[in-house]
Structures are given as C-alpha cells and as structure tokens.
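call fold(seq) -> tokens
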Amino acid sequence: MVNERRVCCDTSFLFSIYGNDIHTEKALAFRDHQAAVVFLSPLNGYELLNALRLAGFRRLLSAEEVRTRITRFEKDVAGGQWGDLPCNLADVLRESARLSKERTLEGGHRSFDILHVAAARVMGAQDFLTFDANQRRLAESEGLKVPL
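ret:
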C-alpha cells in the first residue's frame, strides 16, 4: 500500500450501496471508479447491519430484502471488496473523546459520527466518504478529504 491513499467511510456511504437511497447511484459510481480500497472499521459493519434491520422494522425494506442485503454485504467483506485494518477500540474512544471535547459544542456532532471520524483517523485515513453534511464538516476540520 505504499503511496496509496487510505480511504475510510461512514455508514451513510455504506447504506447507499446496500440499502438503496437517494445517494445510491453516486455511491456505486464512486465505488466502481475508485482505485483505492475503502477500509471499514468494526463500527461500520455493526451500524450498517443495524440500519438495514431498522429499515426492515420501518417497512422500508421487506424482511427478505434485509436478509439479501446483509448476505451481500457479508459476502463482499469476506471476498475482499472492503479493506480490513486493525482498529483498537480504546484508541478510537480516546480520539472520539478528544473530537467531542474540541468540536461538538460548536458543531453539534452525533456520537456515531464522531466515532466514525475517530476510527478513520486511528486507521490512518486521508479520505473519508460520507453523505452527511455535518459529518463532512467534522471530517474536514480534522484534515480528512471528503471527495463526495
């Protein structure tokens, strides 16, 4: 991975790929034309699977669609579609505490948004993928490029 940009994402990007929303076309186009691997933290997988199940609960997706999308995500992870890096949760929580202290009072950032940006920083990312405007501001304030 010498000279490659390290790219991480939040769940809004992943949900657009697996959940089908207004950003799906843009997310798929980016994924299909991106040369760099997008690395996931354990938080990404947890939040995506819960978001898909919640979409099922809210009747936005059928139970069968939820199962199919979860299976596709799990197969993509197992098949190497997404990068995997060690990500120490204690380090992510320390970085999250710093971000919250320095940024939330002025920026109004939600806990999971902070956790995703903190994980990206701990994982050494230069780029961060999100469709959430407030999370974009947080990531950019921490020196991450947000190409979407």
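The chain has one domain: 7-138.
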